[in-house]
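Entry 14. Structure prediction run on the chain below.
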Amino acid sequence: MQTATSFDRLVLATRAIRHDPGCIDARLVLAEHSGDLSTRLRHLEAAVAAGEWLWGSVAERVDHDLCWWGDVGTRPYMRAVQALGVALCEAGYPDESRACFERLLIMNPNDNRCIRDLIRDLDIGPCSL
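Output returned:
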């Protein structure tokens, strides 16, 4: 099995965004390869917005009882919310970061992504996630 290089992943993500600007995984790749924090935040905010567009109406219809972690289709969105929380912390916005993490705990009370650890780190001191 061949693995893509970082450059290959970046090219594929860029192509995916051209075809589907709401492709969450592609936005995550672009954020990961961003050279600066503001560009990373822009990609992560777009990824989260796409996830909200995709999954928001579903959550409303099922009265917020959607088993987020149980549906693998929601996981890119959850990864995007987590990455946005980390980036917001790095940008000096701990309250906004905490809001992302708390949202994830509501979505996934079993905490399969170890979000409680990130919140604990926020409680310890300045953002250093």
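The chain has one domain: 6-124.
Filed with the rest of this week's runs.
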